[in-house]
Amino acid sequence: MQRTTDSPFTMTLDKVPDRLRGGVVAIGNFDGVHRGHQAVLGAALAAGRPTAALTFEPHPRAFFSGRPLFRLTPPAVKAHVMAALGLDAMVVGTFDAAFAALSADAFIEEIIVRRFGAKAVVVGHDFNYGAKRSGGVATLQDAGRRNGFSVEVVDEFTDARGAISSSRIRKNLAAADLDGAAALLGYRYRVEAPIIHGEKRGRTMNYPTANQSLGPDNELAHGIYAVRIEIDGVWRDGAASYGRRPTFDNGAPLLETFVFDFEGDLYGKTLPVTFVKYLRPEIAFTGMEALIEQMDADSRAARAALAEVQPISALDRTLNF
Predict the structure, then answer these.
(1) In a domain, 155, yes or no
(2) Would you say 44 and 17 are in contact if contact means Cβ atoms under 8 Å apart?
(3) Is the pTM of this model over 0.85?
(4) CB 130 within 8 A of CB 103
(5) Based on the structure, what is the number of domains in the chain?
C-alpha cells in the first residue's frame, strides 16, 4: 500500500478533519514504527474507529538536543507503514518552542479534547507530555476520567535482549545487521527519496544506477547491498551501493541502485528501496577493470540472495512485495 505525505492519510495537527473526531488516538514519536510501536497502534485499532496516530516533526529529541538524529522512518515512510497497518490517518504536530512550552493541561484541552474530541487514547508505558514532561500516564488517565475519554497504556515490548527500541535498530543498521534490524522492525528496512542526477559513471561501465540522497543524518553502514526497488507499482531486484564512492571522489553519501533487467527514465520519481542483504563493505579500487569485475560479482551475489527472499511478516509482504 503506497500513500504519500500529501495524501488524505497524512495531515497536520491544525487541520484535523471532522472524520477523525470522536475516534481513537495513539500518541507517540513512532520512529521506525517497530514492533513495540505496532503493539501500541494495534491496541488503538482494537479500541475502535476512526483510528489516528499523532506524531511529531521534528523529532523532539532532535529539537531539544539541537543535533541531527538518524531517522528510521522520515514522515513519508512512516505514513506508508502506518497505512499498511490499517490506520485511518497520521496526524503530524509541529514540535517547536511553542509546542514544547504547552502545559500538560493545555495539551489535553487543546489537542485531545478540542482537536480530536477523542473517545479513547492509547500510549506506551513511558509516555510523557506537556512542558518539561510534566504529564505522564497517571495524569493522562486522570484527565480521561474528567473529560470523558478512556486511556489504554501498552506495556513495554521486549525480546530476549530487552526492550525493542529505535536506538537498537539504529545501531543494527549502522553495523550492517539488516536481519537484526528487521527482527525488531517487523519488516525490512526501507528508504524513500527522489531519483537525482549523478555523475553518470555507471553508464560507461554498463551499470547505470538510480541515485538517491538519503540525507546527512542517515547512518546506514556504507557498503554494497542486495535491494528491491518499486517502480510504477512493480517491485524489481537490484544491487545498490551506499557510500562515498572512494574509487572516485569520496563525496557526500549516495545510494546508487543498479536495477536488474530494467531500462527507463526514473529521474524525478520518488521511489522506495528495501534492503534485503548486506554483501560487502565499500572499498576503493585501483582501476576500472577491477571495479567492473567486482560489480559483476556483486550483481551475481545480489541475484542469488534475492532469488530466495520471502516476506518476514504480513506487514513486510504489504510494504515490500
Answers:
(1) yes
(2) no
(3) yes
(4) yes
(5) 2
